[in-house]
């Protein structure tokens, strides 16, 4: 489980360090920085996939994402760097990204590509010299062996993370463990439910233990849960939101399609006839009842398109998922948040912005977890 999330110099997040629990609720007014926390988490996940440079490019490049205010709380004299990190029950990780030190006269067309300046892995709640296991400084990566350091690479490219290039069970088992941990994270952000959404079309189905980001494999994911997962839980979740309704999966000719039977109707409704809110709720059921739960499940505004009366049922769904996964929910729906608060290990972070900087309302300096970006 993640115990700390740290973000510095990313959009309005100049210096944000959050203590995390089993179920975490991030809320706040529009423009307070909720989406930035979600995006920062996705950037951390992209590091383990080798796509963080591309992901930053899709956001407009590093200069567009960097904090633009004063840097007195981070590095007063050095260059501003994007810094992301987390600590968990076992290992911690951080990464620093900055602009390249290339001579424009060299003629490269990639002068705006960011570079990875520093990475570190350690054991314990925060980075300390005694607990550091792997250190990357620019192109050099070293692993600790006893009281000495072994050089794993001396010419690692600035666009490559050590997690994707050097993780192996022999020289860097901790790196491999952490990479696979991060790769297990799942993010769900606004499933498509429009008339042309992939989830509304029959799809050839295969055993699907984890629904895709766009939800095209909804029917196969639900059928997988029914066969090898919590079929009773899915039935109860549908009945909780739509009393008396039941799900059916049509599997003719190998093409899977969701159908719903509702009281008073003589035939089931197929997925093209379902409302946007009903379809989104079914997509969330498939994500939250996965027979292979994620270590970390991150939901960004799951209440979108849902009727307010469905939000308590959604909150109960998320609370049940928190028994098997650590969950982070970004939301501003009061009825959903009120239901999530009933979880015994929930904590809420209400974000606010002061002079352009995102802060956590009521989080005092002494309440922040210990965190160091450098030794």
Overview of the structural elements:
By secondary structure, the chain is α+β, with helices and mostly antiparallel strands. It folds into 2 domains: 2-185 and 350-367; 197-293, no CATH class. The protein has 10 helices and 18 strands. It has helices at 34-49, 52-58, 62-65, 162-165, 173-183, 218-228, 231-241, 276-288, 311-321, 334-340; strands at 2-10, 13-19, 23-28, 82-88, 91-98, 115-123, 132-137, 140-145, 148-153, 186-189, 203-204, 246-250, 255-261, 269-270, 296-300, 326-330, 346-354, 357-360. It has an 8-stranded antiparallel beta sheet with strand order 2-1-4-5-6-7-8-9, with helices on one face. Strands 10-15-16-3-17-18 form a 6-stranded mixed beta sheet, sandwiched between helices. Strands 11, 12, 13 and 14 form a 4-stranded antiparallel beta sheet that branches. The mean pLDDT is 93.
In short:
With 375 residues, the protein is an alpha+beta fold. It contains 10 helices and 18 strands.
Uncertain stretches of 5 or more adjacent residues: none
Q: How would a textbook summarize the main sheet?
A: 8 strands, antiparallel
Number of helices: 10
Beta percentage is: 25-35%
Number of strands: 18
Give Rg in angstroms.
22 Å
Cα distance, first to last residue? 24 Å
SSE class? alpha+beta
What is the H-and-E element order? EEEHHHEEEEEEHHEEHHEEEHEHEHEE
- Binned, the helix content reads 25-40%
**Average predicted local confidence, pLDDT:** 93
Query: Which outline best applies?
Result: globular
- Biggest β-sheet: strands ordered side by side in the sheet: 2-1-4-5-6-7-8-9
Number of domains: 2
């Amino acid at each position: 489980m993640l115990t700390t999330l740290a973000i510095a110099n990313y959009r309005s997040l100049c210096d944000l360090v959050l203590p995390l629990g089993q179920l975490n609720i991030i809320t706040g007014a529009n423009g307070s920085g909720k989406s930035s926390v979600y995006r920062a988490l996705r950037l951390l996940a992209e590091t383990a996939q080798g796509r963080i440079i591309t992901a930053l490019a899709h956001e407009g490049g590093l200069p567009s994402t960097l904090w633009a205010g004063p840097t007195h709380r981070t590095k007063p004299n050095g260059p501003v760097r994007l810094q992301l990190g987390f600590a968990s029950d076992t290992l911690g990780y951080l990464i620093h990204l900055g602009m390249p030190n290339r001579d424009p006269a060299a003629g490269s067309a990639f002068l705006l590509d960011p570079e990875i300046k520093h990475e570190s892995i350690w054991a314990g709640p925060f980075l300390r010299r005694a607990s550091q296991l792997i250190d990357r400084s620019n192109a050099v990566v070293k692993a600790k062996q006893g009281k000495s350091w072994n050089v794993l690479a001396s010419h690692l490219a600035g666009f490559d993370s050590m997690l994707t290039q050097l993780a192996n069970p022999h020289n860097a088992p901790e790196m491999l463990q952490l990479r696979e941990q991060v790769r297990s994270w799942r993010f769900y952000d606004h499933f498509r439910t429009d008339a042309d959404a992939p989830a509304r079309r029959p799809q050839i189905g295969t055993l699907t233990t984890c629904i895709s980001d766009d939800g095209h494999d909804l029917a196969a994911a639900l059928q997988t849960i029914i066969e090898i997962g919590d079929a009773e839980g899915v039935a109860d979740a549908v009945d909780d939101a739509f009393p008396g309704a039941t799900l059916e999966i049509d599997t003719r000719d190998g093409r899977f399609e969701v159908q719903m039977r509702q009281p008073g109707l003589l035939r089931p409704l197929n997925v093209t006839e379902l409302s946007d809110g009903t379809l989104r709720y079914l997509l969330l059921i498939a994500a939250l009842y996965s027979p292979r739960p994620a270590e970390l499940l991150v939901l960004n505004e799951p209440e979108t398109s849902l009727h307010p009366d469905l939000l308590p049922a959604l909150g109960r769904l998320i609370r049940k998922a928190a028994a098997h996964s650590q969950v982070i929910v970004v939301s501003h729906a009061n009825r959903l948040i009120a239901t999530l608060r009933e979880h015994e290990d929930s904590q809420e972070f209400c974000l606010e912005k002061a002079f352009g900087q995102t802060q956590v309302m009521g989080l005092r300096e002494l309440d922040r977890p210990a965190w160091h970006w450098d030794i």
